[in-house]
Write a structure and sequence with these properties.
The complex is a heterodimer of chains A (311) and B (535). In chain A, 68% of the residues lie in helices and 0% in strands. Chain A has 311 residues and is mainly α. Chain A is elongated. Chain B is mainly α and 535 residues long. The longest helix of chain B has 19 residues. The chains are: A mainly alpha (311), B mainly alpha (535). At the A-B interface, helix 4, helix 7, helix 8, helix 11 and helix 12 of A face helix 2, helix 3, helix 4, helix 5 and helix 7 of B.
């Protein structure tokens, strides 16, 4: 069980990272798109950001430098990431279950960080003070871990109920969505149950982490907790291949679409990218487009179908 | 209302509408339209229309797609749709919106937050068909199944759907049941954009299958590129009309006005929505008067398409969009003007100031801006003397989506109204949280079959509720009320909707632009520029 759990953890993390990287690259490599921002933009002047104003509210806006109020942007991002602000504001019924679920995930990530830190402390420091510190950390990690599991299971269960009973959600719920939530419930239940009910002599959280770092198969991991680790690792590996990877998408949808008001100025990088895209040769079939695969977008944009048909 | 529909219903092989709405199903309105009986009755689609065109979606028909005569023809149309679907996800064909489209396709969690923000969904009585994600979910399933060539696992993960001609025909109509106001995208916790999905669908149908509403394509962007304006006005006709407007404005205001044409090196190239010149001549007249009195060095252009700011391509076709934008920019370049200023037309603002920004290279980088900060600066500068008591009647402001939510121009118009209109009151919500007038994305000019019935009962209903609420303290005909709509398209929708519900005759709700209010308050102008004559 121990070796299988370690292998699952490593494989899960590797696949997760590779999957995320693949997804990030797929979006990052798409060509620059036309501007498509939606106001309010948090990086505007604070007084404008408050009501959704833009630099277009000023005559000859191009004579002034573009504002980059990163503080405003961070404030909105933190509210959105930690407290799911949009959902709270626009869909209150779904906010609490979703908040519980996501906050549980953040706590779970904190537990993984804690476990790694405990393992590192055990390796780097010795002596009674270090031991006391590690014990304290382990206690904190266990408490956070328990809270994480409870939040995730409660949130996932609540979301599952909503998806299966709310007519509004049913039409857009797929078998995969139900499976995903059940997978979270199963993995977290196994992890917390397996850990709390583990047999005497089986590894604590810190020992598991230390064992995983050293691939120490002498560490005894309880079977239920081990099964939980394997299932959780599979879940982690699976996430980047589903819409649950929206934490990646969200960076692009917000920063590269919704908040992207960068100006295209003469000689700028944006202009270079636009010029490159105008060189693409489309093949749209409707006659008025005049895309034969040889004409570029730049050429199509400067043709006039009624004039061409007159000729 | 017919029962709750399922996604699979869009593939239903018959051509019967998926839903039917009655007045009683719709979101209730305030007085004087508070009961379904007081609402107007819907005109039914004619038997001829139903027999000739695909009308399998709902109570109306916007696009008039002829019914295929054979199974082979249906199969060919489906094949063309699939070919277009592939092109939507290909950078050579769709670099313009590929990234946001992919993100929307691959990350929707189905939370339905978008539905809570959609005026069409709410006004329809929360009908499943008009849920913003309903349309997107169909496209998403088609994307995973056909564009990404997904198998059984993909169908399990993303859902399955049966592609056939009835589905494509319904999807064509469904692409024209969204105002592209993007209020749903503003509220999406992930940042998915159902408005974009409707926009991209329209593009697929136009650019691949040659299918688009006649009002937008043949009589819209094609006419503009052929004659110079979607109104059909050539340069000679538009100059004649503007000369007549100058004469009329000079007489009405007592101040001599003459619109300059083709002035090389002017500071400002003003481009109006040419519909103003035809339907609301007092608007370009008011502009001419204000700019003349403020001493602005301005001009209009008589180049092809450059005297009409409209760019309908924004709603349905990237190629048409780019062509019209290029015409505007080339005219500015030819005259050597310092900047382009757009008149009261929302979609023209977004088209030229925002979207076209990433089409321009080299010497086509000519600055473009909205007229609003220029007007605000003129009004607040003290150059012109105003008497706000001339505007002492209830005024409310409509925020055109393209200028406000999609461009961030929120305050200048309010600064003007606060200065010149003592009884200005906001609609709720307003600013970037506004609701569309219901005529956005081309609906205001689409009047085939019984489409206007749908436009007023459903897409315009939320705005109508807002207007009635804004004037709830003075509903009677004894108080004339002014709905300020600084956008030609929105004005068209309001003109038609107020007429439809007879709200001018019964409640004295009038509509007009912002510049008219400015001229009406000018102390040196003959009183009564706003004549309260319905047009």
């Amino acid at each position: 069980m121990t070796a299988a759990a370690y292998l699952a953890i490593y494989a899960g993390l590797l696949i997760f990272l590779a999957g995320c990287l693949r997804r990030i690259l797929a979006y990052a490599r798409t060509p620059i798109h036309l501007r498509w921002e939606i106001y309010p933009l948090p990086h505007e002047h604070p007084y404008r950001a408050a009501y959704g104003g833009s630099y277009f509210e000023t005559q000859e806006w191009w004579r002034q430098p573009q504002v980059a109020n990163r503080r405003g942007e961070w404030r909105v991002m933190i509210e959105e990431i930690l407290f799911l602000k949009s959902l709270r504001e626009f869909n209150r019924r779904l906010w609490l279950p979703s908040f519980l679920f996501h906050f549980g995930l953040y706590l779970a990530i904190a537990v993984i960080g804690c476990a790694g830190f405990i393992a590192a402390c055990g390796l780097l420091f010795a002596g009674p003070n270090a031991a006391k510190f590690v014990s304290l950390l382990a206690l904190i990690a266990k408490s956070i871990g328990a809270a994480a599991a409870v939040f995730i299971v409660a949130g996932a269960f609540w979301l599952l109920m909503r998806r299966t009973t709310d007519p509004a959600l049913k039409n857009s719920t797929h078998a995969g969505d139900i499976f995903n939530l059940l997978l979270f419930i199963a993995a977290c239940t196994l992890l917390i149950g397996g850990y709390l009910l583990r047999a005497p002599g089986t590894a604590s959280l810190g020992e598991c982490a230390r064992g995983a770092i050293h691939f120490d198969c002498t560490v005894r991991i309880g079977s239920a907790f081990g099964a939980g680790l394997i299932l959780a690792s599979m879940l982690v590996a699976y996430i980047p291949f589903t819409h649950m990877a929206h934490f990646i998408a969200k960076y692009f949808t917000w920063h590269a679409v919704r908040w992207d008001d960068r100006r295209n100025e003469r000689g700028s990088t944006i202009e270079g990218k636009v010029a490159a895209s105008l060189g693409y040769r489309p093949t749209w079939s409707a006659p008025h487009v005049g895309a034969d695969g040889r004409r570029s977008w730049a050429e199509i944009a400067t043709t006039n179908p009624p004039e061409e048909s007159r000729k | 209302m017919s029962g709750t529909i399922k996604l699979r219903d869009v593939s239903r092989p018959d051509s019967e509408p998926l839903i039917h709405l009655e007045n009683g199903d719709l979101m209730p309105l305030p007085a004087p339209l508070e009961s379904p009986e007081k609402d107007r009755a819907w005109a039914a689609l004619s038997e001829q229309t139903k027999s000739r065109y695909e009308c399998g979606l709902d109570d109306t028909c916007a696009v008039n797609i002829p019914k295929p005569k054979t199974r082979e023809e249906e199969a060919q149309l489906v094949a063309r749709f699939l070919s277009g679907l592939d092109k939507l996800f290909d950078k050579e064909n769709n670099w313009t919106f590929l990234q946001p489209l992919l993100l929307t396709m691959e990350h929707c969690t189905g939370c339905q937050t978008c539905a809570e923000s959609c005026h069409i969904f709410e006004a329809s009585g929360r009908n499943e068909l008009y849920r913003p994600a309903f349309r997107s979910e169909i496209v998403r399933r088609l994307y995973f199944k056909h564009a990404k060539r997904g198998g059984l696992l993909s169908a399990w993960q993303h859902g399955d759907i049966h592609l056939n001609w009835p589905l494509v025909a319904r999807l064509i109509e469904l692409a024209y049941r969204c105002n592209l106001c993007r209020r749903c995208a503003q509220s999406c916790p992930i940042g998915c954009d159902n408005g974009l999905v409707a926009h991209e669908l329209r593009k697929l149908f136009s650019q691949e299958m040659g299918i688009a509403p006649r009002e937008i394509h043949e009589n819209g962007s094609m006419l503009q590129l052929r004659a110079g304006s979607s109104t059909g006005m050539t340069a000679e006709i538009v100059k004649d009309n503007v000369a007549f407007i100058d004469e009329d404005i000079s007489e009405r205001t007592g101040i001599e006005v003459r619109t300059p044409w083709d002035v090389e090196g002017a500071d400002v190239l003003l481009i109006h929505n040419a519909g103003e010149i035809m339907a609301w001549p007092e608007n370009p007249g008011a502009f001419a008067l204000i700019l003349t009195l403020a001493g602005v060095n301005w001009t209009m252009s008589s180049e092809l398409a450059a005297y009409d700011a409209i760019n309908y391509g924004l709603w349905y076709d990237d190629a048409q969009f780019a062509r019209v934008a290029m015409k505007h920019m080339e005219a500015a370049k030819k005259l050597g003007v310092k900047r382009i200023v757009l008149g009261e037309c929302g979609h023209a603002h977004k088209a030229l100031c925002v979207i076209a920004d990433r089409l321009l290279t080299g010497d086509l980088h000519i600055p473009r801006e909205t007229y609003l900060p220029l007007l605000r600066d003129i009004v607040l500068s003290g150059k012109i003397k105003f008497d706000p008591t001339r505007n002492d009647f209830p005024v409310t402001l409509h925020d055109p989506c393209n200028m406000v939510r999609l461009m961030g121009v929120v305050e200048p118009q309010r600064e003007i109204l606060r200065a010149l209109c003592p009884q200005f009151r906001e609609m709720e919500p307003h600013g970037v949280d506004n609701y569309c007038c219901g005529g956005g994305s081309g609906f205001a000019i689409m009047s085939g079959n019984n489409f206007p019935d749908w436009r007023f009962h459903v897409s315009g209903r939320k705005k109508l509720e807002q207007i009635l609420n804004a004037f709830s303290d003075c509903p009677g005909p004894e108080t004339p009320k002014y709905l300020c709509a600084p956008c030609s398209n929105c004005k068209g929708q309001f003109r038609d909707m107020i007429t439809y519900y007879d709200l001018w005759q019964k409640n004295r709700i009038f509509y007009g632009g912002l510049v008219e209010l400015v001229v009406n308050a000018m102390a040196d102008v003959k009183p009564g520029f706003i004549d309260w004559e319905w047009r």
